[in-house]
Design brief:
The protein contains 8 helices and 7 strands, in the order αααβαβαββαβααββ. The protein is of the alpha/beta class. Bound molecules: S-adenosylmethionine. Pfam families: GidB.
Length: 208
Amino acid sequence: MPPEMEPEPEAAVALFGDRIELARRFTAALARHGEERGLIGPLELPRLWTRHILNCAVVGPLLRPGRVGDVGSGAGLPGLVLAIARPDVSFTLIEPMERRVTWLNEQVGELGLDNVEVLRARAEEAPKYSFDQVTARAVSALRKLVPITAPLLRLGGELVLLKGAGAQAEIEAATKELRKNRVHDIEVVVLGEGVLAEVTRVIRATVN
Ligand SMILES: C[S@@+](CC[C@H](N)C(=O)[O-])C[C@H]1O[C@@H](n2cnc3c(N)ncnc32)[C@H](O)[C@@H]1O
């Protein structure tokens, strides 16, 4: 028997506000098709809301009106979730895998999101100096992620990288890459305390 879908947590309505119906539709689509389309693992259904959707949605308040590039969007995490939560921000979802790009385009159409474009590319091929902020989640270790994300930012732009409990250790392991890519004011922001069972850690830093 397939595992049960996690019921919607109370925090979802507070995080998505009047966009909650869109968040519900996206979560339901991911629950229905995510495994068969190779977007999420078979064990993710019982934690789809908390571990994935809300883990991304709590990052919404860190974004500023402007242009955000989401590197390695995959199923739409965090890019599509944030595009639902923040209709005042323009998103470019940067993803190289064709079947994931197809999924992302389908969801943008289904949900009627007019603040999202999908770019089939590796971050290395995406236009440089284009974004005010760049997000990424579960793409690679910071020392490999910095050289492919920092060049996408305009001067003074910001990295907003979702990371696990090892965020601080990743910063220490990436000292050389951070310096070489002019990344400054690096901090770990902890989000979702008292709301999520597992908090979201974000490495936030400025490039100049
Ligand atoms: C483990 S998945 C994570 C997907 C999603 N961000 C999430 O949190 O579920 C990593 C994604 O990064 C993409 N990816 C890997 N290398 C990349 C690169 N150099 N540029 C852009 N995307 C990349 C992969 O195609 C894949 O969709």
